[in-house]
Amino acid sequence: MTRGRLEAFSDGVFAVAITLLALNLGVEGPGHGPLLQQLGDRWPIFISYLISFFTIGIIWVNHHALVDNIVVVTRTLLFLNLLLLLFVVAIPAATSLMALYLVRGDTDSHVAMALYAAVFEGMALAFTAIFGWTLGEGRTRHPVPAEARRSAWWRFSIGALIYIFAIAVAFVSAPATLALIGVVALYYIVERTPAGQRLDR
Amino acid sequence: MTRGRLEAFSDGVFAVAITLLALNLGVEGPGHGPLLQQLGDRWPIFISYLISFFTIGIIWVNHHALVDNIVVVTRTLLFLNLLLLLFVVAIPAATSLMALYLVRGDTDSHVAMALYAAVFEGMALAFTAIFGWTLGEGRTRHPVPAEARRSAWWRFSIGALIYIFAIAVAFVSAPATLALIGVVALYYIVERTPAGQRLDR
Amino acid sequence: MTRGRLEAFSDGVFAVAITLLALNLGVEGPGHGPLLQQLGDRWPIFISYLISFFTIGIIWVNHHALVDNIVVVTRTLLFLNLLLLLFVVAIPAATSLMALYLVRGDTDSHVAMALYAAVFEGMALAFTAIFGWTLGEGRTRHPVPAEARRSAWWRFSIGALIYIFAIAVAFVSAPATLALIGVVALYYIVERTPAGQRLDR
Amino acid sequence: MTRGRLEAFSDGVFAVAITLLALNLGVEGPGHGPLLQQLGDRWPIFISYLISFFTIGIIWVNHHALVDNIVVVTRTLLFLNLLLLLFVVAIPAATSLMALYLVRGDTDSHVAMALYAAVFEGMALAFTAIFGWTLGEGRTRHPVPAEARRSAWWRFSIGALIYIFAIAVAFVSAPATLALIGVVALYYIVERTPAGQRLDR
User: Which of B2, B9, B11, B38 is best to mutate for the C interface (most C CBs within 10 A)?
Assistant: First the structure.
């Protein structure tokens, strides 16, 4: 298996998932009140579209940086990658469900938001598993020095830890969880990871 | 990050978005009057399908011409590109909403059309930002001469200016805005941009 | 523009369109009679899925054979290609509409079937336009000899002629049109085009 | 036809089909009972999402291993590949139908589950046909030794045999069929095929 086809398939899945997000953007339509009011009432849908869109975008950017360094593609890597995609593919549905209940603000909005954060947690764990796999002897083109490993583990752990925390917070305040997940997205956009630094060199 | 994967992911998103446009093409179905009459009543859906389809097609053509010249792919470029795709992905939903309200012709049709034009405005601004980024020292294979820069800025500005104007016009006449956006699409198809000229050489 | 990106984008659109076809495959669901009976009543949906699937597949195969031979990618070619994709993208919606009305067998089923054939006609004409474009001086790697041109024009004309005939037949018998379009698909699968012969060498 | 474009188109179809699976993941929404209870009642949807997702993933992995070894791409191969994709594309719809009826557990759930297994049977047979085609003289880069052929035939036959058995079992117990199909997926994930061994070397 060449790395190229792993990337092509993953890129395809990322591209479809990020585009399906927009299927949530509709409104109930004519006969359900003025359009501006309908749009206003559905603000969680627009916020969650932004957050989910950039989170998938970040995963894609980081996925590339990680996979680009890999020299051997084994069956184990392929299935870890499928596990990652399993969660990526679930993001549009989880976003839609979360936004639908957040609009209503009832008790179920806590459950829906916890589920949304749980999908991101699963994605972060799968990503960490792929990163862990790349640390094996002779699996990457450029060996990853010990210090870079520590900082990379730390960076991944932050995401996975905050998402777990976000699941718990969802049962107290659903909007607070959404804000947390948005902050994680911002952090990963702004932060210069080693991979990001290499990109910017 | 190689340019190749940026293109592959963007092409995937363009391809999915342009195909999802056609999900709007249905009618209400049996029991809602003769089919020909249903199709006739829904003419805005067919017109807006054409306009949105060719506008996404043009963005894709220009995106290629722009990205093809880039030598370094930085994190900044990746996120500007994500910003562009954020608006591209929203086009099918905005088209659907606009066409749905334009069919009814009520006061909300102004709001829906303004939103439609606003998505194109956002797309044009993101595109201009990417163009601006490419002007940085050493970012393109072929340096862009001063004169070509001026004409390119002018070309991009025209799109962004007309789309802003189209947002305002939407509150006076929604069909006039649709016509304006169609004219912009025609202009970009016919016009020989420097990139287009290079293509045709 | 390299040929590669034209192919990548087109492949993406073909892949999404062919997959969206399957969105029609559902039934009305529990509470609408025994499942087997529902499936039986909806046979036009399954037949039309097969016909549309293989027709898109054939277009993809022929598209490759045609584009593979091209050396220059001009703006004109890009827009002819967009025109082809405009019809390809409309196939799932036209298939869905046609099958929906064919199930009912009422007078509108003639209109829906004519529309279905008209989308294929548009696709065949766009394909012929691309083929015509490739005959221009110096546009292909391997020059197309005069005899091959004649037979290729003939082959394309057959498709475009039968589809036009199929539009007319739709107003007499919708199932006959569906059968005609199925026969065209079979013909293109079985027939050894020059491109096909080159493939099989 | 280069192998590259066959792979690109197939990867696109696999990517879209695997992502469309998640369209089934929604619930009936507010007003249909507590969210947790709705999610609990719909467990077959989540189980079948997992099984269909990994089965498509496995087909993709095996498809790559098979196609990667091919040196000539003939028209026959292209249409065998289209036949495989015909079944792949039908998986999301078959999954959705099966899960919808399994939730209800009525007599139609047997029919829906048999249909689900039949789609996998069709996919396995198409895959076997492609494998059989590759055994022709001079069609693969690395000739497949007689022993590897026997074990490969055996491996493919197991899948196709179990799926046929699963169709029959569906009329006795729908959940048992689902479990069988899940076991086949696990088997193909864990098993080291010759192709898999090559991957892991």
Answer: B11
Distance CA C197, CA C200 (A): 5
Contact D26/A at CB under 8 A: yes
pLDDT of residue A197: 47
Mean pLDDT of A130-148: 83
C111 contacts B36? CB cut-off 8 A = yes
Cα nearest neighbour of C21 on chain B: B23
The structure tokens 């179990």 sit at D162
State how far the Cα of C94 lies from the Cα of C99, in Å rounded to an integer.
Answer: 8
Predicted structure pTM score: 0.91
Query: Closest Cα partner for C90 from C133, C132, C55, C62?
Result: C55
Asked if ipTM goes beyond 0.90, one says no
Q: Which residues of A touch B108 (CB under 8 A)?
A: 30, 34-36
Contacts (Cβ under 8 Å, ≥6 apart) of A151 = A194
- pLDDT per position as a tens digit, A26-82: 788 888 889 999 998 888 889 999 999 999 999 998 898 888 888 888 888 998 999
Query: What are the angstrom distances between the C-alpha of B20 and each of A20, B91, D86?
Result: 9, 9, 20
Neighbours of C199 (CB within 10 A): 21
- Helix or strand or coil: residue A72? coil
Q: Which helix (H) or strand (E) holds A77?
A: helix A75-104
B16 touches chain D (CB under 8 A): yes
Give the residue from B186, A6, D5 showing the smallest Cα distance to C5: D5
pLDDT range class, residue D196, cuts 50, 70, 90: very low
Joined together, the tokens standing for residue A36 give 């501006």
Q: Which of these, B201, B199, B200, lies nearest to B65 by C-alpha position?
A: B199
SS3 A70: strand
Position A90: which residue type? A
User: Looking at the DSSP assignment, which residues form a beta bridge with residue C70?
Assistant: C140
- How far is B104 from B109, CA to CA, in rounded Å? 7
The stretch C89-108 carries a mean pLDDT of 90
- Coil, strand, or helix at residue B42? coil
Structure-token pair, residue B85: 């795709």
- Alpha-carbon gap, residue B139 to B142, rounded angstroms: 9
Chain C residue numbers touching A15 (CB-CB < 8 A): 12
Give the pLDDT band of residue B16 (cuts 50, 70, 90). very high
pLDDT digits over B68-97, tens only? 888 888 888 998 999 999 999 999 999 999
DSSP for A29-48 reads: -TTSS-HHHHHHHTHHHHHH
The mean pLDDT of chain A is: 87
Residue C111: phi, psi to the nearest 5?
-65, -45
How far apart (Å, rounded) are the C-alpha atoms in residues D96 and D112? Answer: 10
Using CA atoms, how far apart are residues A198 and A52, in angstroms rounded to an integer? 26
Give D39-103 as a DSSP string: HHHTHHHHHHHHHHHHHHHHHHHHHHHHHHTB----HHHHHHHHHHHHHHHHHHHHHHHHHHHHH
> Is the CB of A16 less than 8 angstroms away from the CB of B20?
no
**Range D143-153 average pLDDT:** 81
Is pLDDT of B194 > 70? Answer: no
Structure confidence at residue A119 as a pLDDT band (50, 70, 90): very high
Count helices and strands in chain B by DSSP H and E runs: 8, 0
Rg (CA), chain B: 18
Nearest to A188 by CA among A54, A29, A48: A54
Higher pLDDT, B142 or B121: B121
Amino acid at A91: I
Residue B7 token pair: 């293109």
Q: What distance in Å separates the CA atoms of residue A116 and residue A110, rounded to the nearest whole number?
A: 10
Per-residue pLDDT band for D201 (boundaries 50, 70, 90) equals very low
